[in-house]
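Narrative summary of target 7.
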Amino acid sequence: MKDKNLHIIQEVVANMCRFLLAASFIFSGFVKAVDPLGFQYKIQDYLTAFGMASWFPSFFPLLGGIVLSAVEFFIGISLFFATRRTLATSLALMLMIFMTPLTLYLAIFDPVSDCGCFGDAWVLTNWETFGKNIILLFAAIMAFRHRRMLIRFISVKMEWLVSLYTLFFVFTLSFYCLDRLPVLDFRPYKIGKNILEGMTMLEGAKPSVYESIFILEKNGEQKEFTLDNYPDSTWTFVDTRTILKEKGYEPAIHDFSMIDLNTGEDITDDVLTDIGYTFLLVAHRIEEADDSNIDLINEIYDYSVEHGYKFYCLTSSPEEQIELWKDKTGAEYPFCQMDDITLKTMVRSNPGLMLIKNGTILNKWSDEDIPDEYVLTDKLENLPLGKQKVSSDAHTVGYVFLWFVIPLLLVLGVDVLVVRRRERKTAKRKQQEKEIKSKEPETKNQGIEEQE
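Modeled conformation, tokenized:
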């Protein structure tokens, strides 16, 4: 009786740990899959912080991020349905054994601000992440140790189909969001947000003190300047960075600053308070930007000039790279300097396009989805394009959920109606054969007795 009670307790604990791990890995893998570029930037931060950026090819952070998000999502779904129990629990345990000491190091030495385990959907401090990983490590140990006690929702014969479909779904989702834009936007620059409001401080709060450092070059010599001692136009811009001088309250948007490269002036307030339309072409590194759709971009600039709308290209690249871009693409639009991280946060595309009005983000497009002349047939005031794009995170999650769940329900239906019925019939037949065989000696003995 004691052993039976112990077995029940172990089974309950193992399955509770299994569902906790499943929820964590599904959520973690999903939010990374819908924002593959965001996770790429986080991996680049890790490699830079540990001095390993030069160890890997340039495509590694993106490819590695997509693969890791797929693995996490696969582990979560496998644990939820209890398919591939040995593989899923082993992978979960190995990841937690690796991540737990890593996050302890991050918590102590703080080389990166957050681990990025849940992307921008749920930002945890490094100590909060370490505490979470301690709990998940214990759950992974229990699930692995008692993996045979995990209750299956899918038969063994159908689990391969669930595994293949899970990987197909998560890879398809990642590459779709990479080609377009994330289907869910967890950043402060999502459609419908007002940038000025996002920059507003809470009343009475003490702000963080930042300083912009500009690296300029003249006669082969590079020097650092601030806005207070910014030199004349004989100096050539090389790079810029923002440093935190004093920590305080930080609003959702704290580093949005547009520096006009023609005049060197900060035009942020002029742009964000303009009641007209403004197109912002976002190219965080202009030398790495895709120029395959540059004709569409130039057409939108011509359209803006024709109808009196503002158009700026925002980049963090030095002036020589901007000049190369102009020569290569024939760009005539004005350029503004902005922080690289801010640009990466605004639009997950290089280049990407944003439409704002009075500081409110009306729409965003990836390089592959830029509106063309067939859409821009009139003034923006008369087009649906000029209205704020209506989107609902709940509806989006529902659609994605249905795309994943409906095929799985079909698999479950086949599993219940066909596979398991066949297994029951097979088991019943084997039981009958066993009973017949067990009766054969009795029949033979009866025959012998009758002959005697």
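The mean pLDDT is 87.
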